[in-house]
User: Fold this.
Amino acid sequence: MNDFAQRILTWFEHHGRKDLPWQQNPTGYRVWVSEIMLQQTQVSTVIPYYERFMQRFPDVFTLAQAPLDEVLHAWSGLGYYARARNLHQTAQLLAREYAGEFPAGHAQVQQLPGIGRSTASAILAFSQGQPLPILDGNVKRVLARHHAVSGWPGQTQVLKQLWQFAELNTPDEQVAAYNQAMMDMGSLICTRSQPKCAACPIASTCAALAQHDWRSYPGKKPRKDLPVRRVQMLILRDPAKRILLEQRPPQGIWGGLWSFPELPLSGDITQWCTAKGWRILEHQADLPVRRHTFSHFHLDILPREILLAEPGCLILEEDKHLWYNLHQPNELGLAAPVARLLSELSQ
Ligand code: SF4
Assistant:
């Protein structure tokens, strides 16, 4: 075993995390769900979601058979909903074509929806002990600093270099412990803004530390100012105070989640309602604008409360619209700002 891996494993023995819920009974299914949740989300946030998810969908077949809406509801709050949709789709594929198990081939696992090279390696290393390197955000940071790999890891050349170091350092034995140790190193020792170099097991060979310049590694993503889009969200109430929600199309932002009807900022609400045969009794209030930021744009939302004259005349596509009762809420996958607005409205 190489010296780097040896030092990492010795550190893990004394300081690594060994009681995370997905480390207990690490089947492919349990590891996979944890890996998907941990993309973009911290361990402490993931734990309660993971435990609830496992109670509700204890195995791949339960997940495959559940309606997508139920899966999105269990995911509400974790964000990046494409992850939940891919999880559901992959569960159906595994149930249908692989008898509910993950295939043993790395290339096959990597072809499943939502599973990239690092996630495929993690699933096979943690559940089957295959000696495969991982390269999540934490590991990238440790390797970029230790080997002084400059540049933003989103660039192909930089990523390639990091994978080469990951392959070089990963041992053939104790790979599950080693991979977990590397993730722990990134989240406990070689942290983003205040690395604990004095407690680091690889400090003696760390190039960034030798340069007194860990801040430069990994390189930052080139900054771009995000464009701003503005929309009105219509909080349409009927006389019984129920609120109209509609399900968004499967593709695009918040795909498949439930939301308020939306209009461009310049859209005329009265005209829009009249065209649908809905009569407005009163424009009740405009709530303060709120901003939701996606990776590629800001969305400024102006919520407008409208009281409709009667619900009876509404012509709705039944499976795409529903009347939401604030005091007996349905279990739905809600877009994050919609969930926050509904919770404000219920108080
Ligand atoms: S010595 Fe410091 S910068 Fe280098 S890997 Fe360890 S914690 Fe990170």
